[in-house]
Amino acid sequence: MARTTTLADTAGLPLDRILSGDCAEAMNSLPADSVDLVFADPPYNLQLQNELHRPNHSRVDGVDNDWDRFSSFAAYDRFSRDWLREARRILKPDGAIWVIGSYHNIFRLGATIQDLDFWILNDVIWRKANPMPNFRGRRLTNAHETLIWAARSRTSRYTFNYAALKALNDDLQMRSDWHLPLCSGGERLRGDDGKKAHPTQKPEALLHRVIVGTTRPGEVVLDPFFGTGTTGAMAKRLGRHFIGIERDETYRRIARTRIDAIRRVDGRSLTVSPDGRAAPRVPFGHIVERGLLEPGSRLQSINGRHTAIVCADGSLLANDQRGSIHKVGAALEGTPSCNGWTYWCFRKRGKPFPIDTLRKQVRAEMQA
To answer: ∠ CA(14), CA(11), CA(221), 5° rounding?
Structure first.
């Protein structure tokens, strides 16, 4: 059965609020084992030395804020360890974390994540459709960022909505390289002066994919570097709760205004495509035991080339082949494997139906 977050699970949490202050201290105020997912976009520690200009001599609006400056790599590592330790403490046993970074910091973060006994599941390359060019021409254009997805521990039963991500990707298995544009146009928040409200605002599409793929409706997503609230905006829209932590009052104000304007999607549209692998196992023999197919029933292959007889023990008999629905199908087709549930069909009212429809019927009864 799918796990669901109940009111008891979230009692006492500052749901759908933006907390002020240092991220590690704010997380320390939250109860252990209380959050389903952490999405973290920490300072990248870019170590910028000089201003960057375009060929036309205009200044590039880069990241030169005080919150991205650290005195040394050791100082950055201490900062990272402090907040990651708190993030792991507040995650539920089956919770997970996403951390995004660039080549400046992601490798240091990855080492700390492993040192703290998180279990890395994937690294994802966000390949930018519209990267900023390298104006000096002395390096490759930096066209990607890296996300690390990690479970709280090696034994965590983390959420992965495989079928939902496959549906997002036109029924193709979602890969670990994501081609998405930078935040720009109307999505880019700007201040009264017309400048970017936040220099590292992430695109909503990125958070949409993370939240749909690795949480369930009603669960709690915490962002310890909330900025202008992309995580909270997407969490609200997709029927999840959020907790944001942000020390900058201007960013908090912008985020709150942004999130208040978001319309929450409700009802069946929030459900994700079911993952068959998570459903209860139903052997073909159970179909026969329950009388949904009687011994002696004749099945036909989906391509119409082969037939088989259903035996009392749940095996199939076809020519000189006898075995499971999968083994017999593979032998008849001369292939190393076969999904018998979709390969074999039975007839009802003169029409063929995959035997998988009977398995779905039994699963629905088991989960009722």
So the answer is: 50
Give the number of other CB atoms < 10 A from CB of residue 48: 13
What does DSSP assign to residue 202? P
Count other Cβ atoms within 10 Å, centred on residue 95.
26
Q: Is the distance from CB of 24 to CB of 81 less than 8 angstroms? A: no
| Nearest in space to 329 (alpha carbons), one of 354, 349, 359 | 354
10 Å CB burial of residue 25 (0-12, 13-18, 19+) is middle
SS3 84: helix
- Across the chain, which has 368 residues, the per-10-residue mean pLDDT values are 50 91 95 97 73 46 60 91 98 98 94 98 93 80 95 97 92 93 81 76 93 96 96 96 95 94 81 71 92 94 95 94 95 95 94 94 79
Is pTM beyond 0.85 here?
Answer: no
Note whether 245 and 226 are within 8 A (CB): yes
DSSP string, 148-197: EEEESSTT------HHHHHHHTTTS---SEEEEPPS-GGGS-B-TTSSBS
From the list 290, 308, 301, 314, the residue with the least C-alpha distance to 354 is 301
Q: Do the beta carbons of residue 309 and residue 298 sit within 8 Å? A: yes
Closest CA to 42 of 246, 295, 348, 203: 246
- 122 is written with which tokens? 């994937």
Tokens representing residue 263 in the block: 């319309």
